[in-house]
Amino acid sequence: MYWSIPDIPDTIVARKNSKWNTPWVWLTVLALLFIAALIVVLWLKISPFYLLIPVGVWGAALLYRFILSMNRSAAADAWETEKSNIRKKWTDWAQRSIVLVDSRTILPEPLSLPDVITQASGGRNADLFLFPRDEDEDLWRSGYPYVAEHFYQKLSELAEYRLPVTLHIDAPDEEAYLNWQQRFEEIAEMAGVRATIKPLSDGESLMGDWVENRQFEGIHVIFSAWLNEDASDAEFTENATWLVFASPYAAKQNKLPVKAVLQRPIAISLSDETAQNKSFGHYADYALKNRTVHAAWFTVPPKDTQQYVGKLRQAGVSWNDNFDLPLIHTPEPYTGQLPRESHWLTLGLMAENGDQQNQLFGWQKDSNLYMGCLIHQNSVA
After folding, report:
1. Gyration radius (Cα) of the chain, Å
2. pLDDT by residue (tens digit) across 347-367?
3. DSSP character for 136?
């Protein structure tokens, strides 16, 4: 979802007091007027009541100035209240979220999720890691069932919620999707779960729709798995991620477990430097208002990561540099080369990282940088 907040202009500004608008100046003017009137009265030998004329003029001017000041002050206060309401509206818009009910991420051995998350072990940049498969069988007969079996229990658990289940499968091509669809139809039947299975073509728009419709029905699962077609010519480290989402309304009504909440992903255009800087400022002011960031994950090259973190710092984002855990997470040096679409894996790693509460999440698609924030509910960070 694009960031569409307009600038809030200072349409009405309370006027600052002039150096001439002080009690001493007003009293001095009154004294001068009175002295001038007294001279005229004495010179012309007219009634002393004429001394009230300058006092009346002075009083009328003072009353007019007071009324004008009160009206301007009231208008400025009203506009400040309106600006506050506008800011609250956009803060609520930017911080609207969906519930992450459950998650699971699997990586091939000997990779360890805790080591990848905490970056506790040395990087293995040149290594690629694959799920086990029978060399005499093709990918469908060996690799797909191995991965699917790891999520049988997770699929079975969905039956306990007694809600409609929709499984969105993120696959690199139609053939892979059809294979996953067949496999999950089989294990869903074994688990006694009635699930609607769909291909995931535009996850960003899907999450945007979920956030807008805060009472969307049922449970929605995003399943993303990336396996090499040819184990002997592997291009990336294999991985699989399972993310279970529900609306805040459904979670409350059905007493679903809440692992974390995911704030609305917001698209920041990278094509215009000026607009980009303004969007980072808006993101800091509204999406991250009253939040301290404990971790940041970006599925972009390291150079771009440093650039975006720098822009967020300049925008005033509050960071909690807990040196026991990395502030900027870079999984790839610890996993080896990841596939081009690795943001679901990254979100899965964030979901497993319960020791850091407010975690920023950034990934590029087309000419946009999507920014979101995963907030763990039971973190002590």
Report:
1. 32
2. 999 999 999 999 999 998 888
3. T
Residues in the chain: 381
Distance CA 376, CA 379 (A): 6
Q: Which two tokens stand for residue 32?
A: 């001068």
- Residue 116 CA to residue 123 CA, distance in Å, equals 9
Q: Residue 34 has which token pair?
A: 């009175």
The model's pLDDT over 319-351, given as tens digits with 9 standing for 90+, comes to: 987 666 778 888 888 888 888 888 999 999 999
Q: Give the DSSP H/E element, type plus range, for residue 124.
A: none
Contact at 8 Å (CB) between 12 and 75?
A: yes
Q: How far is Cα 108 from Cα 131, in angstroms, rounded to an integer?
A: 5
Rounded to whole angstroms, the Cα distance separating 83 from 7 reads: 10
Distance CA 357, CA 335 (A): 23
CA–CA dist 111, 288 (Å, integer):
33
The type of residue at 263 is Q
- Rounded to an integer, what distance in angstroms lies between the CA atom of residue 373 and that of residue 296? 9
Find tokens 């929709």 and name the residue.
166
Q: What is the DSSP letter of 17?
A: P
